[in-house]
User: Which sequence fits this backbone?
C-alpha cells in the first residue's frame, strides 16, 4: 500500500510542476518564523501542526543592491486558495514593474482572469484544482495592469528548443515519476499513511492535500529533479529569458521590481540575481493552502457509508 501511495504522489508532484509554463486571503504576509515544525525553503514550505493539519506557504524574498534598487522574488503556486491570489493581485500594485511567467504566442496579451488557458495542461490544472478544492492561478491573477511585463519565452521559441533537446512535458513528467520511484523523498516512508488510516480520519479532502503538501515542501530537491547537467528548457532556459528582461527593466530605471514565477524556478533565479550584486534582506510568507483539519467534515469511511445509505434509500 505504501508503494502505491509513493507512485501516486510521484505522479501528482510531477503533474504539478510540469503544468507551470503554459498559457495556460485576505491574509497578511508574515515575516515571523513558523511556530510549528516546517520543511524549510526560501520559497515554499509546509508547516506541520500534527493532527491539527498544517499550512502550505509560498515565499517572497526581497533583495537589494548597493544603489538601493530592490527586487522581490515572489514564488507562485499554480493551484491555491482564492484568497492567496486575491492578496497577490493587491500586492502587485506596490511595484514599478512585475515580471511574470507565461509561455504564449508572440504578440499575444494576457486575457482577463478565467478567459483563456484552454490547453491540455491548463485543463489538467483546472481538473486538479477541482479535485483539491482550490483555485487556479490564471482564473484569479490579473495580468493586464500596466506595470506587468512579460518575462518568458514565446510559444514558438519554447517548442523549438524543446524539439532540439528532445524534451517534452510527458518526458519530464516521466523523469520525475521515475526519480520518485527510485529515490523517494525521505519523508515518504516516515509519513505515508495506510489507506485505512487515512480514510478513518476526519476531513478527507484536507487529509489528502496534507499528504501531497508534505512532499511539495522540498522545492529545491524537486527542481533539481527536473534539470539535468545542461539544464532544461522548462526551467533553465526560461530563467535565462526572465533575467534578460530583468536586466532591461533595470536599464529603464525601475527601482522596485517583482519577479513572479513558479516556486520551482526561484532557487536558480535567486542565484542569478545575487550574481548581479543583489543581497537578500527579507523573506515573507503567504498562506497558499489552508490544511487545518475541520473536525465537522466527514472522513472517507463516513462518506462511503452515507453513499451506501443513499443507494439503499433509492432502491
Assistant:
Amino acid at each position: 500500500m505504501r508503494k502505491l501511495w509513493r507512485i501516486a504522489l510521484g505522479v501528482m508532484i510531477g503533474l504539478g510542476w510540469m503544468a507551470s509554463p503554459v498559457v495556460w486571503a485576505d491574509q497578511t504576509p508574515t515575516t515571523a518564523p513558523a511556530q510549528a515544525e516546517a520543511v524549510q525553503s526560501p520559497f515554499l514550505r509546509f508547516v506541520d501542526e500534527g493532527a491539527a493539519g498544517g499550512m502550505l506557504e509560498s515565499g517572497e524574498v526581497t533583495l537589494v543592491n548597493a544603489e538601493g534598487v530592490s527586487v522581490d522574488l515572489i514564488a507562485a503556486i499554480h493551484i491555491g486558495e482564492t484568497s492567496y491570489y486575491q492578496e497577490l493581485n493587491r500586492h502587485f500594485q506596490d511595484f514599478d514593474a512585475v515580471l511574470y511567467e507565461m509561455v504564449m504566442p508572440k504578440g499575444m496579451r494576457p486575457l482577463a482572469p478565467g478567459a483563456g488557458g484552454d490547453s491540455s495542461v491548463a485543463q489538467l490544472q483546472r481538473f486538479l484544482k477541482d479535485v483539491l478544492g482550490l483555485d487556479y492561478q490564471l482564473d484569479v491573477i490579473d495580468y493586464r495592469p500596466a506595470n506587468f511585463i512579460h518575462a518568458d519565452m514565446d510559444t514558438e521559441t519554447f517548442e523549438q528548443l524543446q524539439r532540439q533537446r528532445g524534451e517534452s512535458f510527458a518526458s519530464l513528467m516521466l523523469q520525475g515519476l521515475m526519480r520518485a520511484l527510485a529515490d523517494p523523498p525521505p519523508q515518504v516512508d516516515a509519513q505515508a499513511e495506510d489507506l485505512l488510516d487515512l480514510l478513518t480520519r476526519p476531513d478527507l479532502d484536507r487529509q489528502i492535500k496534507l499528504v501531497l503538501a508534505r512532499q511539495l515542501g522540498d522545492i529545491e530537491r524537486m527542481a533539481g529533479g527536473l534539470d539535468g547537467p545542461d539544464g532544461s528548457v522548462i526551467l533553465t532556459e526560461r530563467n535565462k529569458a526572465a533575467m534578460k528582461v530583468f536586466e532591461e527593466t533595470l536599464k529603464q530605471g525601475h527601482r522596485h521590481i517583482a519577479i513572479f514565477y513558479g516556486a520551482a524556478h526561484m532557487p536558480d533565479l535567486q542565484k542569478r540575481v545575487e550574481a548581479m550584486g543583489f543581497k537578500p534582506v527579507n523573506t515573507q510568507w503567504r498562506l497558499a493552502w489552508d490544511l487545518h483539519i475541520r473536525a465537522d467534515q466527514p472522513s472517507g469511511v463516513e462518506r462511503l457509508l452515507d453513499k451506501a445509505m443513499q443507494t439503499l434509500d433509492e432502491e
